[in-house]
Amino acid sequence: MPAPQETELRTYWRQLWASTEEADSQDIWYAIDEIKFGYLRRFLPSGGRSLEVGCGSARLSRFLAALGFDAVALDSEAAAVRLAGRRFQAGGMVGDLLLGDAFALPFADESFDVVLSTGLLEHFPDPSPIVGEMTRVLRRGGVFYSDIVPKKFSLLRAFDRLSPSRSGPWERPFSKKEIEALLSNAGLRRPTVFAAGILLPPLPVVRRWRFFARLQEKGALLFYKIARRLDGTRVAEMLGVYYFTCAKKLKRHTGDAASLAARRAA
Asked: How many CA atoms lie within 13 A of 239 on its CB side?
């Protein structure tokens, strides 16, 4: 029997992706993903095969496809997979969009050069099996990426208590040290983890009027483009909404290296 938060999550995502507009609007969330991807680009190989787990609309996969990657995207919700496919098609891009389970990825070991997720891992009490699966299908020396949105105070959520009816998906807390331990336990090394995403909170009343809502959106976007300079600082630790998380899979297991050293010594 699924846990209560699992049932809540599935209902939330099913309704969200079924109601999401066809067009990929250039809003603040698009700008946030562009900036995330800008941080990620310096870690990426020049090309190869990528997998986005829990892809939603698969925006990061589309960014990768635009760079020439062979992009594969997977989600457990059929509505998300259909939306991702339509957006790939609208952008004139090619990608493999699949329905599947993040806990049991339908791919062979070491199949991808890049494996990534966005806003996924914090939605599970124990995300280590998902990270383990993502690492399993990642090639040695490949790049693991996730942005994690933990349950914590952030400037974006400063007014949430004023809107008790606003309910989002279940989230767990995460600290930088916990994220680093999660990566390390999965066999990932050289982690880059930093807090980011200082965003203005939406004013609940403003959303009732379209003109003011659009004005607020433009102001939030301008603020974010300035505030991004604080990403990776203590201010972002206190006020940021997500953690940028990137690491590499070891080219050789520690045990393999130890065995090789022993053979050489003999």
From this structure: 14
CA–CA separation, 40 and 30 (whole Å):
15
DSSP classification of residue 161: G
149 in Cβ contact with 120 (< 8 Å):
no
Residue 117 reports pLDDT greater than 90? yes
List of domains in the chain = 4-265 (3.40.50.150)
- Report the distance separating Cα 48 and Cα 197, nearest Å: 29
> In whole angstroms, what is the distance from residue 221 CA to residue 240 CA?
15
Residues 124-141 pLDDT 10s: 999 999 999 999 999 999
d(CA 79, CA 75): 9
* The amino acid at 172: R
- Residues 56, 29 contacting (CB under 8 angstroms): no
Q: What is the Cα–Cα distance from 95 to 66, expressed in whole angstroms?
A: 10
Task: Please state, in angstroms and rounded to a whole number, the distance separating the CA atoms of residues 96 and 115.
Answer: 14
Count of alpha carbons within 13 angstroms of residue 147, beta-carbon side: 20
Tokens matching residue 243:
């953690």
| Nearest CA among 86, 87, 41, 90 for reference residue 68 | 41
User: Which residue shows structure tokens 């494996």?
Assistant: 115
b/e 20-29 (16+ beta carbons within 10 angstroms → b): eeeebeeebe
Contacts of 178 (CB under 8 A, 6+ apart): none
How does the average pLDDT of the chain come out, rounded?
86
Residue 255 scores a pLDDT above 50:
no
